[in-house]
Design a protein that fits this description.
By secondary structure, the protein is an all-alpha fold. It has 2 domains: 90 residues, Rna Polymerase Sigma Factor, Chain: A (Orthogonal Bundle), CATH 1.10.1740; 66 residues, Winged helix-like DNA-binding domain superfamily/Winged helix DNA-binding domain (Arc Repressor Mutant, subunit A). The chain has 8 helices and no strands. The termini are far apart.
Length: 164
């Protein structure tokens, strides 16, 4: 993959990779850092990525693994993020986005990953199965169970029909 091709790949894929990692970890700055690091690693392997079927899947997987690794390190350190360093100019997420990120955080990582890949990254069941290394039946089961779990966290009890 030459420089121009890689630049085009980066421009077309960056936002999607950041969105995927953000949905997984719930922290935009962390998602951007992981995506950037994944693209730096992709640049170093650009000749190999040219021959693979989906360089974006490779970058997404690397970014996801970086996010998981960082989360584990942060959890071990028991440190709260330094709020003084947060960007105060950033737009606040909508209540729906906050609710979705909170709900995603309450389901298993396996379910969260396939839901994000399917619904936010628009991957097919077969593509997800290949990316996560699981049979398509397992991916379908994780999607189904994940959706059911999300429904319980995202349902507003005030809008539920009354059975009186």
């Amino acid at each position: 993959m030459d420089e121009a091709t890689f630049d085009s790949f980066y421009e077309s894929s960056y936002r999607g990779v950041v969105g995927h990692v953000y949905a997984m970890c719930g922290n935009m700055a962390e998602a951007q850092d992981c995506a950037q690091e994944a693209f730096v690693r992709a640049w170093a392997k650009r000749q190999e990525l040219d021959r693979s079927r989906s360089p974006e899947a490779w970058v997404r997987t690397v970014a996801y693994r970086l996010a998981v690794s960082r989360w584990r390190k942060a959890r071990r350190a028991f440190r709260q993020p330094d709020r003084a360093l947060e960007d105060r100019q950033a737009a606040q997420p909508s209540p729906d986005r906050v609710a979705l990120v909170d709900a995603l955080a309450q389901i298993s990582p396996e379910q969260r990953r396939v839901i994000v890949l399917h619904h936010l990254c628009d991957l097919s069941i077969a593509e997800i199965a290949e990316e996560v290394g699981a049979p398509t039946g397992t991916v379908k089961a994780r999607l189904s169970r994940g959706r059911a779990a999300l429904a319980t966290f995202l349902t507003d009890p005030r809008t539920e029909p009354s059975h009186a």
